[in-house]
Amino acid sequence: MRRVLVAGNWKMNTGREQALELASGLVEQCGEPGTVDVMIAPPFVWLEAVAAVVGGTAVQLAAQNAWCEAPGAFTGEVALEMVAEAGCDTVILGHSERRQLFGDTDELVGRKVAAARLAGLGVILCVGETREQRESDETDAVLTRQLLAGLEAIDGEMAAGLVVAYEPVWAIGTGLVATTDQAESAHAHLRKELALRYNSDVADATRILYGGSVKPDNAADLMGRPNVDGALVGGASLSVESFVAIIKAATGV
Ligand code: PEP
Fold first, then answer.
1. 72 CA to centre of ligand 1 in angstroms
2. Is the CB of 9 under 6 A from ligand 1?
3. Which of 116, 224, 230, 250 is the most exposed place for a label (fewest CB within 10 A)?
4. CATH code at 4-205+212-239
5. Within the chain, where are the H helices?
6. How far is 129 from 74, CA to CA, in rounded Å?
7. Pocket lining: 235 vs ligand 1, CB cutoff 6 Å
8. Region 102-124: what's the mean pLDDT?
9. 89: pLDDT strictly greater than 60
10. Which atom of ligand 1 is nearest to the CA of 233?
């Protein structure tokens, strides 16, 4: 049985005070271990301060990205070892904003995933099609390509604990949300690809999150589908009230 995971991606939002307030509000309401895993991904600069708030509670900490080389001459980048030392146990990789705005290619995402697993970090690997790709019936092919490239160097053993996030690009931050059928179909496709790449045990154990305008009023329907194992939440994770409402919706699944 896969445990539901609700992860909040704060993106490049929050000042220090808001970050700490959000984290403590969340710890107050979801700090005890429950039936749903809860994770937040603050900006790099607040990771350590947020780690001090969520440390020892059930709220897990993730980084939104990292660089794939060992610490060294990479001006402006943050190494996986550093995010681990700052208190993260997971890193989000391949987010569509990274792919579209910062040149994270399929190949680079694959290198980052491999380096993260070698550094002992959990990974949320994001994949998703653009509107044009969906309209030209390329969704499944795009998902397969991004998934397999992301997992290029990952064997069955390293795949343990991996999380995949299906995030249709057209639904991120737009208020447009995939229908539950669209989400279920994409998730089922990804699970089938995981079974082909590894085996049915890995496919059955891998959590596949949906991301793209998840809100308190659509969360339960999306997470109620058999292959949707939780949510990666952007905008609605910036308020304790709406993020907790999504976590509560997941609890009812
Ligand atoms: C995201 O950035 O991963 C995301 C899903 O954003 P939003 O919930 O705001 O669409």
1. 32
2. yes
3. 224
4. 3.20.20.70
5. 16-30, 47-54, 80-85, 96-101, 106-118, 131-135, 139-150, 180-197, 200-205, 216-223, 240-251
6. 30
7. yes
8. 98
9. yes
10. 8
Each residue's pLDDT tens digit, 165-174: 999 999 998 9
Percentage, residues of the chain above pLDDT 90 = 98
Specify the DSSP class assigned to residue 3: P
Determine whether the shortest distance from the Cβ of 64 to ligand 1 is under 6 A.
Answer: no
pLDDT tens for each residue of 26-74: 999 999 999 999 999 999 999 999 999 999 999 999 999 999 999 999 9
Specify the residue with its C-alpha closest to ligand 1, atom 1: 234
Which residue among 95, 97, 129, 187 is the active-site one? 95
CA distances from 130 to 100, 111, 146, 172, 201 (A): 10, 23, 12, 10, 30
| 167 annotated active-site | yes
Banded model confidence at residue 253, pLDDT cuts 50, 70, 90: low
pLDDT of 1 higher than 90: no
Amino acid in the structure at residue 78: V
How crowded is the C-beta side of 209, counted as CA atoms within 13 Å?
Answer: 32
For a mutational test of ligand 1's pocket, the pick from 12, 167, 238, i.e. the residue with the most ligand atoms closer than 8 A to its C-beta, is 167
Say whether pLDDT at 130 is over 80.
yes
CA distances from 180 to 89, 162, 183, 199, 226 (A): 30, 23, 5, 26, 10
* 117 in Cβ contact with 127 (< 8 Å): no
Q: Which residue has the tokens 């737009």?
A: 174
CA separation for the pair 236, 116 (Å, rounded): 27
pTM of the model: 0.97
Q: How far apart are CA 247 and CA 184, in angstroms?
A: 19
Please identify which of the residues 97, 167, 184, 193 carries the catalytic annotation.
Answer: 167
